[in-house]
Design brief:
Blueprint lengths: L1 H44 L3 H81 L6 H7 L12 H32 L3
Helix pairs in contact: 1-2
């Protein structure tokens, strides 16, 4: 946006300069027109070659100024068109930027809605899975029924069950944290 702003300011400055030149040339023309009227009046009184030459000189200068003013008016029109185009482009860039921001908001909102619904479904699954960790295979090796607990004689297996439990919890925590980090990233946080 700053690029458009500086470009617009440059073109506005150029337009201002061209308008000042036009005004200067019009002021000169007005003075020459007054001088021409006086010279034409003098020509009525004195029909000499020098007065005629002076009158022709004023007429030519006015025609030259008219051409210069016409040229400057054309330049002013081009600068105005350029300015209008820059303003239009700036407005379009602002619209595009706003649409991009809106699209990002819609995207995050949609992701959040989808995740929320899916998390509700996962909550049911998590409720069914939580608290079900049981060292059945280790108990079977020890000859302990699944409803019984390890005894003193099974200390080695109990220690293995504890180590395995801790490693599995650490792995699960790490994987869950990664998933949560990815979900937060997905939601733009």
């Amino acid at each position: 946006m700053k690029l458009f702003k500086s470009e617009i300011e440059k073109v506005q400055e150029k337009k201002s300069q061209v308008n000042e030149k036009i005004q200067e040339e019009k002021n000169k023309r007005d003075k020459l027109t007054n001088a021409l009227k006086l010279s034409e009046t003098e020509l009525m009184i004195d029909d000499s070659a020098s007065v005629k030459k002076k009158t022709d000189k004023f007429s030519k200068a006015i025609k030259d100024l008219d051409k210069e003013i016409e040229k400057l008016n054309k330049e002013a029109s081009e600068v105005s068109s350029e300015l209008s185009e820059l303003i239009k482009q700036k407005k379009q860039a602002e619209i595009d930027e706003a649409c991009e921001e809106y699209a990002q908001e819609v995207e995050i909102s949609t992701k959040a809605t989808i995740l929320s619904k899916e998390l509700e479904k996962l909550q049911d699954l998590a409720d069914k899975k939580s608290g079900l960790a049981n060292p059945r295979a280790l108990k079977k090796l020890a000859g302990v029924k699944t409803s019984e607990r390890f005894g003193q004689e099974h200390a080695h297996l109990q220690e293995k069950a504890y180590e395995t439990n801790e490693k599995a919890k650490a792995k699960a925590k790490k994987e869950t944290e990664k998933v949560l980090k990815d979900v937060k990233k997905l939601l733009g946080k």
